[in-house]
Amino acid sequence: MSAARAILAEIQAHVAARNDERTLADYLERASVEWVDDAAHVYYFGEAGGAYELLEVLTQEEVAKRLASLTLDGPDQGANGTQSWNLETLLAGTAYPQLRCLHVRQVRPGDHNQPVLGDFGDEGTVARLVEKTPQLESLRLPSAPSPAFFDVGAPALRFLNVNAGYDTQNFILNLGRSTRLPALRYLEFGEYNETYMDEYRQCCTPFEHYRELFESPVSASLRGFVWRHPICTAEQIEDLQEMRPQLRIKVVRWSHDWL
Questions:
Q1: Rounded to whole angstroms, how far apart are CA atoms 15 and 89?
Q2: For FRET with 127, which of 99, 113, 157, 180 sits at 20 to 30 Å CA-CA?
């Protein structure tokens, strides 16, 4: 057994040992590893804070250089309605030369807790992490990255799936002005959707930002756009579609209210 396989097998056992006979099936914490040749595909399911030890292991050089995909998932748990995923631990790794897929759990219909990066935004963590992943092709985030992400860019990124979370960070505007994502072909974006807040629409992306995106070279290269919770009118959406008639747009909406 290689050193990397031994290290990951050990953390798998450690994570599994945190469960006991009272743990319900839907809450069983686990770290799964699938090996394809000499590349590791890692999936974690559990409380967001419980991922720390696994992430720390992934920074070890023997593991980091073989990490091909990482998915962080978990049950609908959090504090004060928020589930905070912190990727900062991964910054301790020198590089992740094989990492092609990084997915962090997003909010699902009916959830009680909003997944986000960090406590109050990613504060540049995503940008610094992307610098270490030159082969990254697919990125899914529960909340918008800081503007620094667009300064760094991701030359191999083809799939980008982002939710606004608690702050859009002007994601759509920054994306439309970006010149550092040449391979991007598929975009998913979840608009700010805290509909229980008074005047929540003021926190949503202005239509003008979408128009600028659709006028940009970034949009010209897109083949598909999944758009969650737009507050734009049907006429505005139709206007955007007319600007890019070859772009397939799928609009998805859901909402819930506390009574």
A1: 17
A2: 113
